């Protein structure tokens, strides 16, 4: 009996949750996935003769997205970073404002793969049965330094965008909202009247595309002058 109690205690302290116990009502359209609940030590409390550890529940998962070029082709090797706001320190029962407090918001940057898909891993504390984090997604940070050092890099059209990640432990409500995104448009067609000159730039030309003026003209076969003279007389 004592052995079973010890095993149960070790399992409890390890902070393992079954994925089947996580209730999720997904309103993120697939942006947030790989969800799991874990228990971690968030602080220590010293008594007269002993010290106890304080555990907290953390929501872990990943924020996914896609990196492409102007024409929708996937781009590999682009870093996307999540920067969170300051941790709320209103709940004294969860966050201890002393040197023993070990609670933090953890985001691991994601790098796009061959399909252009990146995943930012996160570990966020559940405070008052919910996770509510605001921050910024930074696209390819340090691209200017890469350009200066290596001579070539990927410049993001959108440098960063605000986001909010919310999860309720009781009802499983999960939402991810990203801030205002700029929409890229380009003028097309010839136009008539005032519409003939629309402001804005056309899409950049790729190396495969060459202007029509550079296309090679078909070489006409050389004609014989004597044949031309006889053709004039109807022979």
In words, what does this structure look like?
By secondary structure, the protein is mainly β. The protein has one domain. Helix content is 12%, strand content 33%. The strands form 2 sheets. The protein has a 6-stranded mixed sheet, with no helix packed on it. A 4-stranded antiparallel sheet has the order 2-3-7-5. A hairpin with a 4-residue loop joins strand 9 and strand 10. The N terminus is likely disordered.
List the keywords.
single chain; mainly beta; six-stranded mixed β-sheet; 3 helices; 33% strand
What is the number of helices? 3
**CA-CA gap between termini:** 118 Å
Radius of gyration: 31 Å
Topology pattern, helix = H, strand = E: HEEEEEEEEHEEH
Main structural class:
mainly beta
Major β-sheet profile: 6 strands, mixed
Envelope shape: elongated
Helix content: 10-25%
Percent strand equals 25-35%
Trace the largest sheet across and list its strands. 1-10-9-8-4-6
Write the layout of secondary structure elements.
Blueprint: H1 2-14, E1 25-26, E2 32-46, E3 51-66, E4 79-84, E5 106-108, E6 110-111, E7 117-125, E8 130-139, H2 143-150, E9 160-168, E10 173-178, H3 225-232
